[in-house]
């Protein structure tokens, strides 16, 4: 038994042993874990999952619904992975559930993600919420969240990431992501690759699921404009948020009677840390794969940021050299941060930021969401 939430979180984050999805599903069945949540929106994709979840949550809350979200990784503290109406699970509730589940966790040697998934299921079942938005960790078909029964499946896009688990081609990766689609469960996506869309369509046909491929307006000038149901909305956000918002609007419009008057307010109030988040002339962006870096470069150019220096650090499972090659038009310094998975350079990130501040007007910190969240804490506390 843990006496403090800090002890509990330290234990949770130290649990790294993993098992197959099939083994985890057997554990769910053996212990009769409650998986029948009401109105579940299951979200997969290479990039944009967190932003899409937040847009959907904000739109539903604006309609008066109570919404649970399960996301990863966390930016500020572990609690935010499991939230209700945007508020992370409390210290007391997190401690209560971890102590309640501890015998099971130790008996089955569950990993951090598996533990969080169980806590989320028990917590949400206890609250009887209107909607639940569940974000996949990696992939979809074999992701531990796929034990749930969903009402809507959402795939943001397909790009190269986690190839060691999902495959080396886009179609192989797509085959994992689309695994969240259950029988008679509609699929919404803003993926634009025709070959992948054809694959999704065939998959949905086999599973008697309605397929909703969505077109995304091309944006070339900031601020961006989006049209929905004959109305125009303005986004003072990174360009990639146009796609995420398009997806969220269509999903929520499918689920309930969406009040168009609330949409601009949701856009204006939108906050998602470490997604081109600005602190003066310092920008934090959690781009951590090839498509993420592409979107970051596009955002820098469309924002017309001048004299940009990049502070970069990535994790060992990422294609670091490819991302650095894409950033070669900028002055880049490779930084290090306190994470055993870091493949950064020998310069501590604090020093790297100061070096770039002395050389450039604008600084962009990127390469890993874990790295950027570390820098964010440093910036806020400075």
TrEMBL record:
Pfam families, per the entry: Mur_ligase_M
Protein name listed in UniProt: Mur ligase central domain-containing protein
Domain Mur ligase central: 43-242
Keyword Metal-binding: yes
Organism: Faecalibacillus intestinalis
Keyword Protein biosynthesis: no
Top-level taxon of the source organism: Bacteria
GO terms of molecular function: ATP binding; dihydrofolate synthase activity; metal ion binding; tetrahydrofolylpolyglutamate synthase activity
Any one GO cellular component localisation term in the record: cytoplasm
InterPro entries the UniProt entry points to: Folylpolyglutamate_synth, Folylpolyglutamate_synth_CS, Mur-like_cat_sf, Mur_ligase_C_dom_sf, Mur_ligase_cen
Family, per entry: Belongs to the folylpolyglutamate synthase family.
Keywords: ATP-binding, Ligase, Magnesium, Metal-binding, Nucleotide-binding
